[in-house]
Amino acid sequence: MVEEKVILVNEFDEQIGLMSKLEAHEKAVLHRAFSVFVFNDKNELMLQQRALSKYHSPGLWTNTCCSHQRNGETNLQAGKRRLQEEMGFVTTLEEKTSFIYKAPFDNGLTEHELDHIMVGYFEDAPVINKDEVEAWKWMSLEDVKKDIELQPELYTAWFKIIFDKFYEFINVNNESNS
Question: Is 65 assigned a catalytic role?
């Protein structure tokens, strides 16, 4: 199996190199990533619970899927690829914004990512990859927001940051679902 590499970037999202995913997380090097938020026609967000075997944030709830772009892959191509790999479906995605965050984990690894937020729509049940996803559910954004306030330990670091700082980009309540 080929070792997965992440795209190292500067704060302007300009590629400056490649590094193994684990090494980038060990050294807390800034790299490109994405977070996909998929909604249904009731404006409910599809959440996933990360597989218990994940090397960081196992069993935590988060957005529909997230990962890292591969070298030469656009953000949207990466989002669609990973949505298929983790959740078993593909849908049209739209980029909304991006931000940089840094979050250390208990296991000594650190996420330091320039995260691209994408939104899409889907109505059916996913066919989850059990190596990646433990469970999934639909929740309204209001219920997610309340639950994060009550039980923040159940959610991933990046998901909480997005909800805190970029809520207006994922709250598609007033937009058409086309």
Answer: no
